[in-house]
Design brief:
By secondary structure, the protein is an all-alpha fold. Strands 2-1-3 form a 3-stranded mixed beta sheet. Helix 4 runs antiparallel to helix 9. The longest helix is centred in the last third of the chain and has 35 residues. The protein is globular, with a radius of gyration of 21 Å. The chain starts with 10 loop residues before the first strand and ends with a helix.
């Protein structure tokens, strides 16, 4: 676009999921309920794992980290959306937008890395059970989580710094309920080639390698389960990774569905609505998926709070 159309940016306008006034109270109640359920459910898992020595294992260590990240992931977008609805103000400052985008990418990438690490943990537990405690020792578990944080922070920092170099036109309306990177790039008047290349490179390298690692781990897990002689052994082995497989499927299918369908529909408002699936619904469902059929989590909660779970 022409240079004369550039303007100094101080704030953006988040259009949200719907601009209809009659829907705002319903959206506020719905998102407030989902946010509280997400925080409470994931917080209970973190407290159960940290307070019960029976759950001080690699699998539950990674699960508690995932729950903590899910709380942070949802907290980067939903509270601001609720404030905007309540105050009837859709404005977010430029600095606030960049900050929100940074933490959103950070925790989204952390979800991605932790799910990959958890797949590897299940692979070792099922395919190499005799060497499990030797391979998945506490130092390695801590190192894997630390590396996940470092890699996620670097990826988020790269995308945020690339966004800072963009210049914007007079139209500063983001058709989303949070500062989503792709939507910000579409508003830019300056050259966005490097930004798009960075997004595609990270998606192909990080997303592709993580998904490949998960698929490889589960292909080996399926082979090991099929080779087991007893039906009871097969059921026990499958039940230990069924929850993780459900969460992986939910996270990747919803996020991939949103980003693959967006270019086809060219409807930013539909994309914003679909984004709710992986930004809000998936973190909300994770505690239910991991705890409903998990006797260890139920037992830990019962011992911690003295109530029937």
């Amino acid at each position: 676009m022409k240079p004369e159309n550039l303007t100094r940016v101080s704030e953006f306008v988040l259009l949200g999921i719907s601009e209809k006034p009659e829907l705002q109270p319903l959206l506020f109640g719905l998102f407030l309920s989902m946010y509280l359920i997400t925080v409470l459910g994931n917080l209970l898992i973190v407290l159960a794992v940290s307070s019960d020595s029976h759950l001080h294992t690699p699998m539950y260590f990674f699960l508690s980290n995932l729950s903590f990240v899910d709380i942070c992931f949802t907290s980067t977008t939903v509270p601001k959306m609720l404030v905007n609805i309540q105050t009837q103000s859709k404005v977010i400052t430029y600095g606030g937008c960049i900050t929100q985008m940074y933490f959103f990418i950070l925790f989204a990438e952390l979800d991605n890395f932790l799910l990959t690490v958890m797949a590897y943990d299940r692979f070792v537990a099922i395919c190499h059970p005799l060497h499990y405690t030797v391979i998945m020792h506490p130092r390695l578990c801590g190192l894997l989580v630390l590396l996940s944080w470092i890699m996620s922070a670097l990826i988020s920092l790269l995308n945020s710094l690339m966004a800072l170099r963009l210049s914007f036109c007079a139209d500063l309306q983001i058709p989303h309920f949070f500062c989503e990177l792709n939507q910000m790039i579409q508003l830019a008047c300056s050259n966005t080639f490097l930004n798009n290349m960075a997004i595609y490179f990270v998606a192909a390298l990080v997303g592709g390698s993580s998904l490949t690692g998960i698929l490889y781990s589960y292909s080996k897990i399926v082979s090991c389960i099929c080779a087991m002689p007893s039906a009871q052994g097969k059921y026990k082995a499958f039940s230990t990774c069924a929850s993780h497989l459900s969460v992986v499927s939910l996270f990747y299918l919803t996020s991939l569905g949103v980003y693959l369908s967006s270019p086809a529909t060219h409807n930013a408002q539909s994309s914003a609505t679909a984004s709710v699936l992986y930004t809000v619904v998936t973190p909300m469902l994770n505690p239910f998926i991991y705890s409903l059929r998990n006797k260890d989590i139920k037992g830990a909660l019962k011992r911690s709070f003295g109530m029937a779970v």
